[in-house]
Amino acid sequence: MYLFEQYITSISLINETIVQLFINPSLKKRFKNIFSSYIVKKKQQKKLKNEFKLIHKSCEQIFSFRNRVVFMFYYLFVFALKQLKEEEIQIVIHHWIQILNIKLGWIKDFDKIVANYVNLFAFFSFSANQNISIFI
C-alpha cells in the first residue's frame, strides 16, 4: 500500500509541475524563449487544470508511470498548438509565401532571360535562312 501511495503522490507532483511550468509567472520568464507560443493564457488555466485531472483519471489504469508522463507532455504540446491564434498562423504562412516567392521569383527571372535569348537566337537563324538583311 505504501508503494501505491508513493506512486500516486509522484504522479500528482508531476501533474502539478507540468501545469506550473506553463502557468507560474516566474517559470514563464525562464522558459519564454523555449515555449513562447505555447504559454497558456490566464483564462485557460482552469480549463487546462481540469483537463489534466481528466487525463490523469482516464489514463491511470491504462498507462504505466513513464508512459503517462510522456502522454501528458504530448497532450500539452497538442493542446498548446491548438491555442495558436489565427493571426500567428497567418503571419507564419505569410513568411513562408515570401520565402517561396523569392526563390520562385529568381527562377521566373531566369526563365525570362533564357526565353529572350532563345527568341533572339531563333529570329537570327530564321533571318539567316531567309537571306533577310537585319539592321541593328
Number of strands: 0
Q: Describe the global form.
A: rod-shaped
Main beta sheet: strand number and arrangement? none
The fraction of residues in strands falls at under 5%
How many H/I helical runs? Answer: 5
Task: For this entry, give a set of tags.
rod-shaped; mainly alpha; 136 residues
Protein architecture, described:
- This protein is mostly helical and 136 residues long.
- The protein has two domains: 2-84; 85-136.
- The protein is 77% helix and 0% strand.
- The chain is built from five helices and no strands.
- Helix 1 (2-23) runs parallel beside helix 4 (65-82).
- The longest helix is centred in the last third of the chain and has 44 residues, at 86-129.
- The chain is rod-shaped and about 90 Å long.
How are the secondary structure elements laid out?
Blueprint: H1 2-23, H2 25-30, H3 45-59, H4 65-82, H5 86-129
Compact summary:
The chain has 136 residues and is mainly α. Helices cover 77% and strands 0% of the residues.
